[in-house]
Design brief:
CATH topology of the largest domain in chain B: Ribosomal Protein S8, Chain: A, domain 1
Oligomer: heterodimer
Order of helices and strands of chain A: EEEEHEHEEHEEEH
Structural class of chain A: alpha+beta
Strand order of the largest sheet of chain A: 1-2-3-5-4
CATH superfamily of the largest domain in chain B: K Homology domain, type 1
Largest interface: A-B, 43 and 42 residues
CATH superfamily of chain A: GHMP Kinase, N-terminal domain
Distance between the termini of chain B: 57 Å
Shape of chain B: flat
Shape of chain A: globular
Mean pLDDT of chain A: 93
Radius of gyration of chain B: 22 Å
Number of helices of chain A: 4
CATH class of the largest domain in chain B: Alpha Beta
Helix content of chain B: 10-25%
Strand content of chain A: 25-35%
Low-confidence stretches of chain B: 1-22, 243-291
CATH topology of chain A: Ribosomal Protein S5, domain 2
Radius of gyration of chain A: 19 Å
Chain lengths: 250, 291
């Protein structure tokens, strides 16, 4: 364990349990969520999470394109996760790649399990997630942004979908990895939680953990999700505040 | 950030939530547990494990026998008899497809028009991009929306401009018995037709159209505030262009991007008057255009 051997590897966890950015193992990076950030979309949200910046836009339910994807008993959910060319240090080659295809697929499927798609047969709910600046955990930030955007778009669903990644750094389980921790850590475990039922609808893992560590990581992740859930709800309340009266010109 | 700011409205159901008192406006979010008290789950809710939760974002409404959530956002959900403004998106041999802002395009069959259209001749009457006022006739379980253009106030829109507002804001734009819309037409000299789907047609001089769309944007942003009609009225009065100007005769050229027609908008008076009627038992705002 804790084979912090290689030359370049930074010390991810100090002796007193602090991480490279000073966080404790169970601390999230600061999150700011703005619901309704775009005018054109039916629903949208902008998420700044640590150094991540992610925009999500939801269109629909609307006519399905391409037509053959149409399902006559429910709406199809089409999700596209994309990273901007300038979102990482070294220019990312624009467009679909294996990674973004996979992420689009798992996020789309996560939403399929919470959205009441049967209410809108033969339509499409299109979810666009654009990563503008990436610093590990962008799929989780994408899920959070898309979920707030779906609520903003008035789409019926079981619950909001908070999401966070848990990882293993310097032999310890840590919440919400940032880039260096993700790159040099031992494991990464992104998840998305349905708070209403306690179900996980997205769970992936990279690296290795023992069974005990996995259990601990899931526990920590669920706690993280519950905290993010509150931030998401507050973002929507702020946007739809039932304002008392107020100044401001007409 | 860890606590909801509305007492008694917590999701986790630790405290028994009290039923909302009348007039209180409570925002609920998807996944929030709702106070049922023998009420049946209605629109915007779902039931699981003996509890009722909100499925959409909106305002809580507990009107026996239903508890439901009134949407504050989202696309237009059609209801029979709604009068809406649509834009032609496709022309087929016997019908047109209209975008009315609903989840699906609405077919307008050639027999549902006041014209005598021959098969294959649909393109001579309406082209892609034309806008029309139609009424929702029927809806089926698959979400198909039947519309008709036969009826008073229905027909093709010529000239003017169309802007989009949230369908949830339509009642606010119309105002109680059409008060808001009357204020706007009276003080701008524009003609305004509000579809239930949140599409608003504005006819009149370019300046009037501009002012009305500004006002509509303001209403959209401040929709929940009380006294909005008064505020809009004073805003319009104080920003009346150059002193004396009341409603001005409409200049002949009102052409705008959405509407290729060059006809002066003043000719469709009846069209929009009726629309407002449908919107909220509005009184006829009269012909605002000319004096």
């Amino acid at each position: 364990m804790g084979s912090v051997g290689a030359k370049e590897v930074p010390v991810l966890l100090s002796a007193d349990g602090r991480r490279i950015d000073g966080r404790r193992l169970d601390e999230l990076r600061p999150i700011r969520i703005q619901a309704g950030a775009l005018h054109q979309a039916d629903g949208s949200a902008f998420v700044e999470w640590g150094a991540n910046k992610v925009m999500a836009a939801v269109y629909g339910p609307r006519e399905v394109h391409p037509r053959h994807l149409q399902q006559n008993n429910k709406a199809v959910i089409q999700c596209r996760y994309n990273m901007a060319a300038f979102s990482v240090d070294e220019r990312k080659r624009p467009g679909l790649d294996r990674r973004s295809q996979e992420i689009s697929k798992v996020i789309g499927e996560a939403f399929e399990s919470v959205v009441f798609a049967e209410e809108f047969p033969r339509t499409s709910i299109d979810v666009y997630i654009e990563v503008l600046q990436a610093n590990a955990g962008t799929r989780c930030a994408g899920v959070v942004a898309a979920s707030v955007a779906l609520a903003d778009a008035g789409i019926p669903m079981v619950d909001l979908l908070p999401s966070v990644a848990v990882g293993k750094i310097g032999g310890a389980i840590a919440l919400d990895l940032k880039k260096e921790e993700d790159n040099f850590g031992e494991a990464d475990l992104p998840m998305a939680l349905v708070p209403q039922s306690g179900r996980l609808v997205l769970l992936q893992m990279e690296g290795h953990m023992t069974e005990a560590e996995l259990a601990q990581a899931l526990d920590l992740g669920v706690k993280g999700c519950r905290s993010i859930h509150e931030t998401m709800k507050q973002a929507l309340r702020d946007r739809y505040a039932v304002a008392p009266l107020a100044g401001g010109s007409a | 950030m860890s606590r909801g700011n509305r007492p008694g409205r917590r999701r986790r159901g630790r405290e028994a939530s009290s039923p909302p008192s009348a007039g209180e406006r409570i925002l609920v979010l998807p996944g929030e547990e709702l106070p049922v008290r023998d009420l049946r789950p209605g629109h915007g809710t779902y039931r699981t494990g003996g509890k009722v939760y909100a499925s959409i974002l909106g305002l809580l409404s507990a009107r026996p026998p239903f508890v439901q959530v009134i949407p504050l956002s989202g696309r237009y959900i059609p209801r029979p008899n709604d009068v809406v403004i649509g834009t032609v998106t496709d022309v087929q041999t016997t019908f047109w497809l209209l975008d009315i802002g609903a989840p699906r395009w609405a077919p307008l069959h050639m027999t549902g028009t006041p014209w005598k259209v021959d098969v294959g001749e649909t393109g001579r009457y309406l082209r892609v991009g034309d806008s029309v006022v139609v009424q929702v006739e029927n809806l089926d379980a698959t979400g198909r929306i039947g519309v008709t253009m036969v009826g008073e106030g229905l027909g093709k829109l010529e000239g003017g401009s169309i802007i989009h507002i949230s369908p949830a804001r339509v009642p606010r734009v119309v105002g109680r018995s059409g008060s808001m819309i009357q204020t706007i037409t009276r003080l701008t000299g524009a003609q305004v037709a509000v579809g239930q789907n949140g599409r608003v047609w504005i006819g009149g001089s370019p300046e009037a159209i501009h002012r009305v769309s500004e006002v509509l944007r303001t209403i959209e942003e401040n929709g929940q505030r009380p006294g909005l009609t008064e505020r809009i009225e004073s805003y319009l009065l104080t920003t009346m262009p150059t002193g004396e100007q009341g409603p001005e005769p409409l200049p002949a050229e009102t052409a705008h991007r959405d509407a290729p027609g060059t006809q002066p908008a003043s000719t469709d008076n009846d069209g929009d008057g009726d629309l407002e009627d449908e919107a909220d038992d509005a009184a006829e705002p009269g012909a605002p255009g000319d004096h």
